[in-house]
């Protein structure tokens, strides 16, 4: 008899002790096999638990996006500094605003060699030059799993709820931006019930909607673009809200209402009016937990544009949903109240992707064991053999939600919008996107650099210091320069394996060996408005908010373990993660270290790059430095170039 009451989600395996040799990078076969066996046991159990949720429904708290909000600041408009630039992989120009984050040294470390406070510049995307294309061709959560408090079958309207949330987000941004911003309806191909004669047409019943609400629904259901939310006119062109969307599929809709009125010249609904219309529609159809999940799906649209993925929403269905109890309806009013916080998160696509990809990072997994850790998940559980590929994406979302309960609603919304393939692609190679703001904003750690470690800096044998601690100390900002370039964080979350001899470490490291642990914590966000003085924003909550404390293993008893076809392991992810983390050490430092671990074949590429760099010009050297930069570091570099 198998049960997951062993707290799978809260107790992942610990691998750091498997490869204890301080100076060997490539693990032995027996070490890889041990890691792989433990990883399979963990991921298979987690997959079994995810299947139970898929079959029986979510814990209600998992559908509440409120748990995502930790220190996310409240969105502010009309910034002093704006920039027009390409952003992400898309060639489309976007409008960005400049802000910054401040981090302070905490604890009782009495050290006068490092700064007590540091500030990092940041960009938020507040406009796009073109609308984001989407379709109702998605199959992920096309049958809505609901919560344990939703049992009777009802409609699945996740897709159109998501588009409606895009309108609400756009309208709220226009309202916050004020003068110069505008909201208007544009041509719609959606017809009233009596004017639509196409055979393949979906009828949407909007109940007792008046002509203003009906006109709004025309805009939501329009093919191509149904509204235009202009944020700002610039010499480079017109920029629209980041949630501007354009439907590309050929689906035809007709609106059914109990009192038909012709579409008159109606002013666009405000964000509050649109929210009221949407909640009335959701109440009329009993959509329950679909409403908050749809908000989280809408939140990911700028992330899709940034990373070049395709938005595919679930098609409307008269069945395939779950009808709610009264308790879920109590959540709805908080969604509009907290909307400005969700807007800030949405305008930070790198934070969104870092948060989601970080769900599969583990502190106790060193760089040289990333492959056997991720292999069972990516190549066995998500192999496509368990059903359809959409089933795999639902499994991914549920497993991510179980591992990071605070962002469970974000996970499910992201998968419903079609973001899962891009997440898998980013995680697979061991180099997921990283953003330092993700941890303080959402409460979900992303990297070994997010933790300060514990105990003395030196090992039991005082001649050694763990390499993760070497990396942490190198990254500390010194008051006096030392010609080393460790200001940027590593671009991989996985900790370097082993330990270094203290005598081989730079002064920047050895000068702190007797110090108490140094840790910088996010303190506040800095807004710089166009009119008035800048001000500090301490985020949604300055103290830990109520989180999901019930582990799923305490709520669901899984009696049948899932089994998956075992596949041959490829160590490419381990090699890539190791190469990235040791490259950061080398290209920012003083040359080839004396330790024999740097002679490993996995790191040969670093020395090949070094030989090439000797003949390269300054631009080439700058590009190499970029390999070690996280998103925030690249932003600061770009801002310094345009200052």
TrEMBL record:
<feature type="region of interest" description="Disordered">
    <location>
        <begin position="608"/>
        <end position="633"/>
    </location>
</feature>
<feature type="compositionally biased region" description="Acidic residues">
    <location>
        <begin position="608"/>
        <end position="620"/>
    </location>
</feature>
<protein>
    <submittedName>
        <fullName>Pc12g10150 protein</fullName>
    </submittedName>
</protein>
């Amino acid at each position: 008899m198998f049960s997951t009451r062993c707290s799978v989600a809260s107790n992942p395996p610990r691998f750091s002790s498997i490869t204890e040799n301080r100076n060997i990078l490539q693990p032995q076969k027996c070490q890889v096999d041990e890691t792989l066996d433990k990883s399979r046991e963990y991921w298979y159990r987690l997959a079994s638990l995810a299947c139970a949720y898929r079959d029986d429904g979510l814990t209600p708290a998992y559908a509440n996006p409120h748990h995502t909000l930790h220190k996310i600041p409240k969105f502010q408009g009309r910034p002093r500094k704006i920039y027009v630039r390409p952003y992400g992989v898309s060639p489309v120009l976007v409008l960005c605003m400049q802000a910054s984050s401040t981090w302070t040294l905490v604890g009782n470390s009495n050290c006068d060699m490092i700064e007590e406070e540091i500030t990092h510049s940041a960009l938020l995307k507040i406009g796009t030059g073109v609308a984001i294309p989407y379709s109702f061709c998605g199959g992920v959560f096309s049958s809505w799993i609901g919560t344990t408090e939703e049992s009777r079958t009802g409609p699945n309207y996740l897709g159109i709820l998501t588009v409606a949330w895009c309108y609400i987000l756009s309208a709220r941004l226009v309202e916050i931006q004020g003068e110069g911003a505008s909201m208007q309806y544009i041509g719609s191909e959606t017809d009233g019930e009596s004017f639509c004669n196409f055979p393949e047409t979906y009828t949407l019943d909007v109940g007792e909607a008046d002509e203003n609400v009906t006109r709004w629904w025309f805009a939501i259901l329009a093919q191509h673009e149904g509204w235009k939310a202009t944020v700002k006119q610039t010499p480079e062109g017109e920029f629209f809200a980041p949630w501007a969307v354009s439907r590309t599929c050929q689906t035809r809709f007709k609106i059914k209402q109990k009192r038909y009125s012709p579409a008159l010249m109606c002013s666009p609904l405000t964000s509050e009016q649109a929210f009221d219309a949407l909640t009335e529609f959701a109440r009329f159809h009993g959509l329950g937990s679909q409403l908050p999940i749809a908000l989280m799906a809408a939140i990911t649209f700028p992330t899709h544009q940034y990373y070049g993925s395709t938005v595919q929403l679930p098609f409307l269905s008269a069945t395939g949903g779950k009808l709610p109890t009264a308790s879920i309806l109590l959540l709805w009013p908080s969604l509009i109240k907290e909307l400005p916080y969700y807007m800030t998160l949405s305008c930070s696509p790198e934070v969104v992707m870092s948060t989601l990809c970080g769900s599969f990072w583990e502190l106790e997994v060193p760089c040289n064991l990333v492959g056997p850790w991720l292999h069972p998940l990516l190549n066995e559980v998500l192999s496509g053999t368990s059903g359809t590929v959409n089933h795999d994406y639902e499994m991914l979302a549920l497993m991510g939600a179980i591992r990071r309960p605070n962002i469970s609603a974000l996970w499910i919304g992201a998968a419903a919008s079609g973001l899962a393939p891009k997440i898998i692609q980013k995680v697979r190679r061991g180099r997921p996107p990283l953003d330092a703001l993700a941890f303080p904003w959402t409460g979900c750690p992303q990297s070994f650099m997010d933790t300060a470690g514990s105990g003395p800096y030196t090992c039991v044998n005082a001649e050694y210091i763990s390499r993760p601690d070497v990396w942490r100390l190198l990254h500390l900002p010194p008051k006096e320069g030392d010609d080393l370039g460790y200001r940027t964080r590593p671009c991989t979350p996985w900790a370097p394996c082993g330990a270094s001899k203290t005598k081989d470490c730079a002064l920047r490291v050895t000068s702190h060996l007797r110090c108490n642990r140094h840790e910088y914590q996010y303190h506040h966000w800095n807004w710089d408005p166009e009119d008035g003085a800048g001000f500090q924003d301490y985020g949604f909550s300055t103290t830990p908010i109520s989180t999901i404390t019930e582990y799923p293993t305490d709520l669901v008893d899984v009696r049948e373990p899932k089994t998956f076809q075992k596949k041959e392991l490829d160590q490419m992810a381990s090699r890539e993660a190791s190469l990235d983390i040791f490259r950061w050490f080398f290209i920012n430092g003083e040359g080839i270290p004396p330790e024999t671990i740097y002679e490993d074949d996995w790191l040969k590429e670093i020395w090949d790059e070094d030989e090439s760099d000797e003949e390269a010009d300054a631009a080439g050297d700058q590009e190499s430095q970029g390999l070690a930069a996280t998103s925030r570091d690249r932003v600061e570099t770009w801002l310094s170039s345009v200052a």
